[in-house]
Structures are given as C-alpha cells and as structure tokens.
Amino acid sequence: MSDTATGPFWWRSIGQRLTILLAGIAAVLAILSWWMVTSFAREAAERTQDNVLVASATTIAEALRSEQGDILLELPYSAFAMLDAIGEDRVFYRVAADGETLTGYDDLMPSGTPDRPGDIRVGTISYRGDLVRTVTVRRTVLANQQPVPVLVTVAQTRTGVEAIGTGLSQTAAVLSVALFILAVGLGAFAAGNALKPLNSFAQAVTRRGPSDLRPLRRKVPDELSPLLVALNRLMERLGQSIRRSEEFIAEAAHRVRTPLATVRVQAELALHTVEKDEEKQMLRRIIRAVDESSRSASQLLDHATVSFRADALARDNIDLADLASRVTDGLAPTADMKDISVRLNVVAPATVQGDAILLESALRNVLDNSVKYSPAETEINVTLAALDKKTWQITVRDQGRGFAADSIPALTERFKRGGNVDQIVGSGLGLTIAEDVLKAHGGRLELSTPNEGIGACVSLILPAA
Amino acid sequence: MRFLLVEDNIELGEAVIARLSLDGHAVDHAKTLAEADEWLSVADYDLMLLDVMLPDGDGREFLRRTRTTERLPVIVLTARSQVSDRVDTLDLGADDYITKPFDFSELEARCRAVLRRRGTPTPALIPLGEALFDPSGGTLSHQGETKPLRNRELRLLEVFARNKGQILSKSQLLDRLFSQDAEVSENAIEVYVGRLRKKLLAAGVEIETVRGVGYRMTWA
Q1: CA pair distance B218, B204, nearest whole angstrom
Q2: Is A287 on the interface with B (CB under 8 A)?
Q3: Based on the structure, what is the number of domains in chain B?
Q4: Does the beta-carbon distance from B101 to A254 stay under 8 Å?
Q5: How far A403 CA sits from the closest chain B CA (Å)?
Q6: Which domains does chain A have, with CATH numbers?
Q7: Could you read off the pLDDT of A210-232 as tens digits, one per residue?
Q8: CA–CA separation, A270 vs A279, rounded Å?
Q9: How far is A396 from chain B (nearest CA, A)?
Q10: What is the value of pTM for the model shown?
Q11: How far apart are CA B38 and CA B3, in angstroms?
Q12: Do B25 and B108 belong together in one domain?
C-alpha cells in the first residue's frame, strides 16, 4: 500500500503501470525486429551482389579460349549487363594470364587469389578511393599444349548495396515505430479491458448508499473474489452491528416509554378521583413532565433517523397529493379533539423524487405544530399547488398565534422554540426535522406570518420530479 | 363498547382498563399473544388495542396473521417512535397507531375515528328527554331533525348523559374533555355548556349550574 501511495504519479494506477510495462516490452521487441530486419536485408543484398559478381566472373572465364598458342578473350556483354542490375555502381575487371593482364584494369589487385582451378575468392578491398567487392575466378587454359592459369577478377563498388540496405533499414524502422505505436495502443486497451471488472466492482460499491449493506452478488474475476468475500463479510458484520443498535434503541425506547405510559395513565386516572385543586395541579404537572420527556425522546430519535436516511436518500417517485392526504388523515383525530378542521386542497398528481418516510415526517411535524398552536374551532388549510413549472409547494396555514417576526430565522435551529409558545409542550426539533428533510431533497422551508401576526404560514417547497 | 387490550405490562394494562371503564367500556386483558388468540376465539370485540412488543412474539407478526381472518379494527400501541415504524404497522393492516405514553383523550379520539371510518353496524342511541343522542355518529335528533355535534360538545354531552343527575365539577369535566397537552381554562367549559343548553332546550333537557360546585344534567 505505502509504495503505491508514495510512488511517482504515473506509477500509482494499475492501468498506467500495465500500459507502461507493455509499452516497454513493445519498444524492446520493435528495436529487436528492426535490427534483425536490417542486418538480414544487408546480408541478403551483399550475398546477391556476390552471386552476381561470381556469375559475371564465371561467364567471362567461360569465354576464354586459345588459338595458336594465344589466349583470346571476347568479353561477353551479358557478363556486365547482369551487374547493371545493382544500382549505379561502377564495375572494374581484370583478366590476367600467368600474372599478365590480358584485358581490364592493370592495378586491380584482389586481396587474395584462388590456388586451384575452379576456386572462387571473394574479398573487399579499397580501390581508387572506394570500397569494392572483388570476385576472382581461376581457370586453366591450354596454350601450346601448356596449361596457363588465368585469373578473372570482377569488382564492383558497394554504394548500391548500401543504398538498398539503408532503404530497407528505413522501411524497417518505420514499420517498427508503427508496430510500437500499435502495441502501445493495444496495451492501453488491454490494460483498460483487464481492469474493467475492477472498475465496475469499485463503481458498484461506490453507487451504494451508506445504509445499503446487502452482500454484493456479482461475478468477478478469480483475482477479485477474495476482495469480494472480505467486503461482503465486512458489510455483514457492519449490518449486524447496525441492526443490533437499532434493536437496542427500540428496546430502550420500549423500556423507557412503557413505564412512562404507566405513570401517565395512572396520573390521569388519579385526576378523576382526587378532589383538591392543589392535588389536581400536581398531577397535571406530572403529566406534562411525562409528555415533555417522551416527546423529546421521540423527536430526538426521529431526528437521528432523518439524518441517517437523508445521507442515503432514496429516490422513489412520490405523489405529494397522496402523501398530504395520508398525513392529514393521520392528524385528523388530534385536530378533531380541538374541533379544528383540516382542509386539504390538492392538485393531483404532484410527483417528486425522494424518501416517502422522510417527506411524510416533515409534513407531519409542520401540521402537528399547527394543530398544537391553533385555538379550538379554527381551520387549518393545507394547499398543494405548483409554485412554478419545476416546483411544488405545500402550504400549511392556520389561524393560530403565528411566528414572532424576529424569531423566524432561528426557529429551524435545533431546540429553538418561539418566544410565544406559552405552556405548550414541544421539543424544539419539529421544524428542524422538516427543514433537514427538505434540504436533503433540494427544497426549502419558508415561514411567515402573513396576516399581521394572526395565523402562521409554513411552506414546504420541493423540486418536481 | 367492548375492547380487547393486548399488553404485557400489568400496571399499564390495569390502568388503561380502569380508565376505559370510567367511560363505561368493557375491556378484556390479554398479556400474551396466546391469550389474545384465546379471547378472540370466545368473544366478539368492537376494537383491539395491540402492543407490538410482547413476550411471546412481535405484535406486528400477530397482526399479519390475524388480518387474514379478522375484521376487527386494530389500534397499535407502540413504544417505538422511529419514523418508519408507523408505516410498517399501517402496512400490516392496523387501522391506526398511538405511541406510548399516550394522552387518553387522544386514544379515545382515535378509537372514535377508527370506528366511524369502519361504520358502526348498530348505533347505540341514548334517549335524552325528547331527543335521541347518537354518540358514535356524533348527532342529536329531535322532532325528525338531526343536528351534528362538534367533537367537544359531543364528548361533554356523553359525560353528562352517562352521569344523569350527578353533579360534575368544572375541573372534572376539564380533565375528561381536554388533552393534558393543551392549556385550557375553565371558562371554556362554560362556553361548551352554554352551547349544549341551547341545543337541548327544546328537548326538555336541562343543564343546571350548581353554584360553586359544577353542573348537573337532568331530563324527564
């Protein structure tokens, strides 16, 4: 781990490492192949020249004849014509019988001469400022019944051969470079392709929300399967510990709330049997304290749930009209106790994307506040309408005490309550929860008191799906 | 009305029973799901109050099981308050839920709402003088004319109707009528009594003020 973190930037990615390694191998192979092609081409060109020179010298040697003791030579045209094939190289020759030049260049002296008839000597010498390739053939001609050794030497400069070699070498170099580039491209492709399972594996893990702890079920290459197994085991352990703590919270809530419920019911029961006003007052205080503690506990738990779920926000399609009617139905009995009528005006369907449980809890908190702070026999209007083409707005408007204008900015802060709440039980978390939910959904919460301090107006504004 | 209360905490269960009996309801108490099954097989109930965490199982599991056979309205009592729990229980077929600790007026209001939603097959009518009072429908009929009552008027009238001729103090009425959550003055009682008087005058029902003590309703 540590060496990858501290290495040069191009060495930190497996893909880059693979590409660089493959490119290196390709470069070595390209150079090797260029060198092999070049040397082979040179050798082939040289061998061709030698063969032609030998053929030429042999043809000349074949043309030797003797007549009345003289050695005669009629130079065959074809012996030189075949040499023309190799570029524009100059050709030299010398035919010498018994060391005396019959025809050709006197000073063309090859590096060595063949010792026996039929032998061929090939060599390279410097002649008239150029390197020349020489071929000498030895033949014995009978003149006056005497065998006379005749040496036929044909020489040619090497410029053409070298030009051919250089040309072939250049072509080979171009081909090698092309091959190298192709190999690098293929290498990068291969590296990318080989790493694809790893990348898609990483993406599959990244795409998941923090609360999604189901084991990953996907086919991975053998090399990745230990990682997959380890990851799944880790997620299982994490899931277990989250489940355990959720169960613990539920159990703790149960353990705390059940006795609180007993206290509350007993106190209420006692209220109906005691006579004295002071005693009744004491019992009412007990009930209020119970309500306050239980409400704080549940709002704190809700707040924790909201924060957790907002991190891993679900993206379901939700009909706000449906949601609003569910929430108003749920709170209707509570409102009814105060003879408050909750009127719902909706346009349907109004779709948003998000987490239904969170949005429901946001609206419930807002509406619950309205019911709490509204006087008996009043109305609460819940209106769902389009604010503009891309935004829905749910407005909850009551005829209660409204918000004090200077307290509005602070009301959505945790545990902040308005200055005009009197004795009403509350935790100071309701609007915080609502605002957190809306922010997580890309919306906002707006508070106002439109009618000169009578009636609060809370708007939940959400982007349309 | 007849209730089945499924609650393993004995103190809480007994207190709930005592409180419901005050309003004239009959309540059977099951402490486990097994007991609840037994009660359900021998008696008919108007409503079941079901705790979700019981020693012999999860109340939600029980709910899922009984939902297939019973048409009994169910209100779940839960000590959980996690946002999602409510959705669970309603999905499983509970009619409503209430979190512990609960306000009794709220429980009553929720029971009433559930029963109204379900539709009561035989309304129990209470004759008050020449008028007929229907507590579950929330109406008062006199000479062929049926008038709806507001919730608080209805509850107040219910208390009076069940305590014919008895003197009820303002603070007694206050405790019966209002959730402890709300701060309500005794003046409010005077307002509601005044309204009821107007509505009952023609039927020959009288709500008498007993100075310094409270009110008493009498009818022929």
Answers
A1: 9
A2: yes
A3: 2
A4: no
A5: 19
A6: 1-207 (no CATH), 210-312 (1.10.287), 314-465 (3.30.565.10)
A7: 667 788 888 888 888 888 899 88
A8: 9
A9: 21
A10: 0.64
A11: 14
A12: yes
